[in-house]
Amino acid sequence: MSDIKKVAVIGLGIGRSHIVEGYLPHPDRFEVAILCDLNDERLNAVGNEFGIKGRTKDFAEVLRMPDIDIIDICTPPGSHFELILQALASGKHVVCEKPLVGSLADVDAVMEAEKTARGVLMPIFQYRYGDGVQKAKRIIDAGIAGKPYVATSETHWLRTAEYYAVPWRGKWATELGGVLMTHSIHLHDMLTYLMGPIAGLFGRVATRVNDIEVEDCASASLLMENGALATISATLGSTSQISRLRLCFENVLFESNHEPYSPGQDPWTIVPANDEIAARIDAVLKDWTPVPIRFETQMTLFHDALVSSGPLPVTTVDARRALELVTAFYESSETRTEVRFPVGPESRKYKSWRPA
Which residues of the chain have pLDDT under 70? Predict the structure, then answer.
């Protein structure tokens, strides 16, 4: 029996990257059978580019297709919640771009729907994949890094008025948030992926770069559950774009490359405290197998999980953790107080983080 999964890609903006990086490199695992987009020109352009004959503007039609295994949702963020619920209810497996949904209440509702769904849901956090971040993860998980001290996360990108000329961008109703939701959410996921859960956050947000509804600058001070301290800064007004993680542990310093859209790839700076630690790192990495970056590895691991019924590489719990940080950011900025984790229904931003 073939293990090739038939995929429907919904939304062909970032959806095109899913096709190029995630599905086409694995013809033994995936077949992109259907494209769905409301824009005829884009629908036909992508279909013609990759020779994909199945095309529709009707999401409901995709839900009725019995031979589709996976629905990959790449639409603007404001539509994710309803599309996820409909796709799960149809019995399909679901992939969904970030941000998964627009509130903690919505992500909790999705997690409830997952309990009775025949298919599984995998959120997208492709920046976790690449040799650099995965080597750091292996060293930390092996106990070599030791006690975590401090960390910094910098997402310093540039977005101009031209970027926000797209009608759904920069608006609470459709983009759901600004730099925290659409841009720095990647590096913040990498921070907790490597440093563990957050215990408390004091943050501020501001709109300083563009004439938009949502924030385009943010900063925060974090206390991690393991006692480490972390700082976050993010802006869409940097004339030189970088994404940078710097993690200081007792025995090892890690610093990512500065590539804005692929900080997980090598080269990472990994500085051991002494020769003994260096030897332990060499030993734990001696059998290293290269990890392709971004969607290529995440989709490979997704297919492995579907075939083996094993754990997903990224889960809704991971997506909730990312949205918990966002919720705490907006609440702290509004109240000028520290927000403690976990963040639940008691939060004034649990159902919506839009400004009052």
Answer: 1-2
